[in-house]
Amino acid sequence: MISQKLNDQITRIGPGSEAGAVHRRYWQPAALTDEMTPGMSKLPVNLLGERLVLLRGADGTLTLTARVASPDEAPTHHPAEADLHPIAGAPVYPVVEKNGIYFAYLGEGAPPAFPNFDCFRAPDSHVFAFKGLWECNWLQALEIGIDPGHASFLHRFLQDEDPADSYGKQFRDKAADTNMPITQVLREYPRPDIEVEETDFGLKITSLRHMDGGLTHVRVTNQIFPSAICIPMSREMIITQWHVPVDDENCYWVTMFTSFDKPVNKALMREQRLQEHSLPDYAPLKNKSNDYHYNPEEQKTETYTGMGLDINVHDQWAVEGMGAIQDRTREHLGRGDAAIVRYRLLLRKAIKAVGAGQFDRLPMQDQPGTASLIGPLSNDAIADSDDWQAASWKYDMTRRAACPWDASV
Fold it and tell me: Where is the LigXa-like C-terminal domain (predicted)?
């Protein structure tokens, strides 16, 4: 457990806040490129506790600045373009487009370089971007993403779907080089050993599920500082997902799905997700107002939550159920929370560094070094228990060698 003062320090992100100052030293996903349709010149953006407007100039240049808004404007409010009025003299923030997402930098000084991660260097044909609104603080949204053990419980499927119908869905593939569905692995081996390693970009998290016959299932995921994760989705795709603070009590997950194999079927991926979300706010159709479509009969035979097969709904229910801002003064972390503990230490170190003006001590703030970062490795593998490290690396290298774009590391 932690004190209320510390909980406020690591969760609050508005102007003048300490965690907010850290976030403002990094590029933040401001909007999907799909949101600014042809002919639009203004788009409302609610980000880091600020009410902003994304502007597209006559020459196509993109900028972000403050807009006129009432102090109590709802975070999902989406004003019409004609009602978006920039505030004269307000700071103007730079914006760049990366594979379907507009990223904005709200900090002082020159923005940092982008790392050369797979999601950024893959061609547009192999990346699909989407987002969804969660009514909770960004930190609890991130922390569920860096908890490897939760998948065996929260996402427990009591029946294993045909992987032939798995495209675009997480945890609906077969485990690497086997005929065992990944859902079966997670269900039958629910308590992984977890190893956490600090990296130049954040954290590398390895979960080891020791199986029968001297085998180990190895799942490598990553925390990309300050608020993103990179995790395997299937043998073909990885997910790079930011947990973007709208304000203290709301956030968007903003995801790039990156394929190492065939071009992404973007029409199908978008259709799948629009079945679960409404536009223009990308709010989930299953939510607390309708009990997330909880079905007790489904819970008996199909899923742990009884809330359908979309794991985003499971995560949404879990993080929103903690309240708008999780009360960490009452929590009791254990061995399985190793990544969460390490991340909070990393965040507190970053808060201290920003407060002291020591920006070069932040992850990925070394310009030449940041631009050379590649990967990160994110995959599932099954290997002999005494050789799991080499097998995990080999599996990733084999996938990269066959990739039609340059995924070499």
Answer: 111-360
Is the CA virtual torsion 131, 299, 303, 305 positive or negative?
A: positive
Beta-bridged to residue 375, according to DSSP, are 117
Lowest-confidence range among 18-32, 77-91, 92-106, 384-398?
384-398
CA neighbor of 9 nearest in space, from 24, 19, 22: 19
Residue-by-residue DSSP string for 258-287: EESSSPP-HHHHHHHHHTTEETTTTEESSS
Which DSSP symbol is given to 215?
E
Phi, psi of 270, rounded to the nearest 5 degrees: -70, -40
| Inter-residue contact 13 to 338 (CB < 8 Å) | no
pLDDT for 299-337, tens place per residue? Answer: 999 999 999 989 999 999 999 999 999 999 999 999 999
Query: Which DSSP state fits 126?
Result: G
* Domains by residue range for the chain, with CATH: 4-25+112-401 (3.90.380), 27-108 (2.102.10.10)
